[in-house]
Structures are given as C-alpha cells and as structure tokens.
Amino acid sequence: MEWSNEYAVGIPAIDEQHRKLAILISNLEASAGNGQDRDRIHSDIVMLAKYNRAHLANEEMLMRAHDYPAADEHLSEHRQFIKALADLERQSAVRQVTTELVALIRAWEVEHVSVSDKDLAQHINLSGRDDSVQSGTDSMEFDRE
Ligand SMILES: [Fe+2]
Ligand SMILES: [Fe+2]
Q1: Nearest ligand, CA of residue 78?
Q2: Which residues surround ligand 1, an ion (CB under 5 A)?
Q3: Cα–Cα distance between 104 and 82 in angstroms, integer?
Q4: What pLDDT does residue 131 have?
Q5: CA 1 – ligand 2 centroid, Å
Q6: How far is it, in rounded angstroms, from Cα 99 to Cα 33?
Q7: What is the reported pLDDT for 36?
Q8: Domain-by-domain residue ranges, the chain?
Q9: Which pLDDT belongs to residue 135?
Q10: Which residues surround ligand 2, an ion (CB under 5 A)?
Q11: pTM (2 decimals)?
Q12: Rounded to the nearest whole angstrom, what is the distance from the C-alpha of residue 58 to the centroid of ligand 1?
C-alpha cells in the first residue's frame, strides 16, 4: 500500500500515523507476496496489530477531547478492525497468511481513512481546539519486537 496525499486527513499527527500504518501494511504485503516464512509474516502482523491499537487509541482520545458526535459508529469500526487483526495474528502463528487476506486489511484501512477518519479530522479541525492532537504520539514506537 503506497501512502498518497489523497489519504491525508489534515491533522499532521494522524497523517503521520496513517503513513506508518501504510508502511507496515506494505511490509506485510511484501512478506506474504514473496512467500516469506511464517515467522516473518507473523511478526509483521504482530507489529501492525500493535501499532494499529496505539493509533486507534490515539484517535479515540481525540474523539473524547473534541466531543465527536459520530464516536459510537467510529468506535465500532475500530473494534471490528482490532478483532480482525487479532484473529489474523492468531491464525498467522499456525498457518500461512494469504495475500488475499492482507488485501482485505489494506482495503479496510483505505476505506476507513478515506471516510471515517476524514470525517473525524474535519470535526476536530472545525472545532478549533487541536491542543491534544500532538500528545500521545511521541511515545508511539514503531520498532519490531
Ligand atoms: Fe486512523
Ligand atoms: Fe479511525
């Protein structure tokens, strides 16, 4: 998955996190597509799932700070994605993950960023209080465990 400016939501900290997620998904796509060994694919998924949880928690903090009116729907999309990645994480420990499954992850991310995250960012930018946007992102590490 290539990061592209069309995915920018207009909040620098969130855009940076989405860019990192895109890199992690690309790494996973490459591992799965190249038929890398299962351990490598599993560790890519573990890293993606971990970074994704931190990113979604950061967005959820922003939703609360800015009284986002569509928080319930947005949260339920996050819960579904966290579950899907957790399922994939478990599966990948015991069997090969197909590129088709990885394509579903990418499709979810693109759709969610393009629709739900853009709507959230628009609400935050219109509410004009962006003091909490930067906090919580500095400690978001990106390292392989
Ligand atoms: Fe997001
Ligand atoms: Fe989101």
Answers
A1: 2
A2: 117
A3: 13
A4: 52
A5: 18
A6: 6
A7: 75
A8: 11-127
A9: 46
A10: 59, 117
A11: 0.86
A12: 9
Q: Cα separation of 11 and 122, whole Å?
A: 9
CA–centroid distance, residue 55 to ligand 1 (Å): 7
Q: How far is the CA of 68 from the centre of ligand 2 (A)?
A: 12
Instruction: Name the CATH topology of 11-127.
Output: Four Helix Bundle (Hemerythrin (Met), subunit A) (1.20.120)
Q: Tens digit of pLDDT per residue, the chain (145 long)? A: 677 888 999 999 999 999 999 999 999 999 998 877 899 999 999 999 999 999 999 999 999 999 999 999 999 999 999 999 999 999 999 998 888 999 999 999 999 999 999 999 999 999 875 555 554 454 465 555 4
Distance from the alpha carbon of residue 91 to the mean position of ligand 2, in angstroms: 24
CB 29 within 8 A of CB 104: no
Closest CA relative to residue 117, chosen from 17, 2, 39, 50: 17
